[in-house]
C-alpha cells in the first residue's frame, strides 16, 4: 500500500511540474534552433504518442531502485547485525524513506511558481533544492560535476537518517527497552558502508559517462 501511494504521488508530482511550467513549450523554444522543423514535429509527435508509457515507467523505476537499495542494505545487515533481518523489512523501510524525495518536486513547484517566475528549461532541469549545486550554480560548470553536486543535498542526508533510524530499530544489538531508544550510530554504520558505498560508485559511474559523452 505504501509503495502504491509513493508511485501515485510521484506520478502526480511529475505531471504537475509538466503542466504548471508548460514543459512542452519550454522544450520547443529550447531546441527549435537546433533541429529542422520536420525533426521538431517528429520529436513532438513521438513524445505525444508514447507519453502514456512514462506513467508506467515511473513505478517500474521506483520498484527497481527500492529493491536495489534494500538488497544493498540487506548485505550490510548480514555482515554487521546478529539480529535476523528480512529483505521485506528492509524494502518497507526503503519505501518509507523514499517519501522524503517527494519534497524535492514540491519545493521545485513552490520556488518557480512564487519566487523565480522567469526561468528556462535548464533552470528547471538542474534545480535541486537544498543542494550544493544550488549554491554554486550550474552555469559555467562542467557537465560532469552537475550530478554529484545535485546528490549532495539535505534530502539525501534525511534519507540516510531515516534508513538508519528504522534499521537500528530492527537490527541494533542493544537498545534501551524502557525508553524504546535504539543506537542510531549502528544503523548509520550499516547505511554508510553499504548504501553509501554503492551511491559513491553510482556517482562515479555517472560522472564517467557524462565526461565521455558530453
3D structure, described in words:
There is one protein chain. Helix 3 runs antiparallel to helix 10. The protein is elongated, with a radius of gyration of 20 Å. The chain has helices at residues 2-20, 23-31, 37-80, 87-98, 102-115, 121-126, 132-136, 143-151, 154-171, 184-213, and strands at residues 175-176, 181-182. 14% of the residues are buried. It is built from ten helices and two strands; from the N terminus they run αααααααααββα. The protein has a two-stranded antiparallel ribbon. It has one domain (2-213). The model is unreliable at 176-180 (pLDDT under 50). Helix content is 78%, strand content 2%. It has 214 residues and is mainly alpha-helical.
Q: What's the total number of strands?
A: 2
Indicate the structural class: mainly alpha
Seen as an oligomer or otherwise, the chain set is: single chain
What radius of gyration results from the CA coordinates?
A: 20 Å
Looking across the biggest beta sheet, what order are the strands in?
1-2
Count of domains: 1
The string of secondary-structure elements, in order, is HHHHHHHHHEEH
Number of helices: 10
Distance between the termini: 40 Å
What is the approximate shape? elongated
Strand content: under 5%
Uncertain ranges:
176-180
User: Sheet with the most strands?
Assistant: 2 strands, antiparallel
Share in helix:
over 70%
Mean of pLDDT: 85
Amino acid at each position: 500500500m505504501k509503495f502504491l501511494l509513493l508511485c501515485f504521488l510521484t506520478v502526480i508530482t511529475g505531471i504537475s511540474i509538466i503542466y504548471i511550467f508548460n514543459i512542452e513549450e519550454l522544450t520547443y523554444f529550447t531546441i527549435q534552433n537546433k533541429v529542422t522543423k520536420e525533426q521538431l514535429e517528429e520529436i513532438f509527435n513521438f513524445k505525444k504518442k508514447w507519453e502514456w508509457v512514462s506513467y508506467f515507467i515511473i513505478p517500474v523505476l521506483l520498484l527497481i531502485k527500492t529493491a536495489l537499495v534494500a538488497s544493498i542494505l540487506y548485505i550490510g545487515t548480514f555482515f554487521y547485525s546478529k539480529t535476523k533481518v528480512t529483505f521485506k523489512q528492509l524494502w518497507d523501510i526503503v519505501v518509507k524513506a523514499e517519501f522524503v524525495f517527494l519534497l524535492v518536486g514540491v519545493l521545485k513547484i513552490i520556488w518557480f511558481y512564487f519566487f523565480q517566475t522567469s526561468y528556462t528549461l535548464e533552470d528547471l532541469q538542474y534545480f535541486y533544492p537544498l543542494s550544493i549545486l544550488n549554491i554554486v550554480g550550474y552555469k559555467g560548470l562542467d557537465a560532469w560535476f552537475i550530478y554529484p553536486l545535485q546528490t549532495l543535498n539535505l534530502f539525501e542526508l534525511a534519507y540516510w537518517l531515516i534508513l538508519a533510524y528504522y534499521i537500528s530499530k530492527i537490527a541494533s544489538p542493544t537498545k534501551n527497552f524502557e525508553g524504546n531508544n535504539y543506537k542510531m550510530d549502528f544503523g548509520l554504520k550499516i547505511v554508510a558502508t553499504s548504501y553509501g558505498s554503492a551511491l559513491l560508485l553510482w556517482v562515479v559511474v555517472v560522472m564517467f559517462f557524462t565526461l565521455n559523452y558530453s
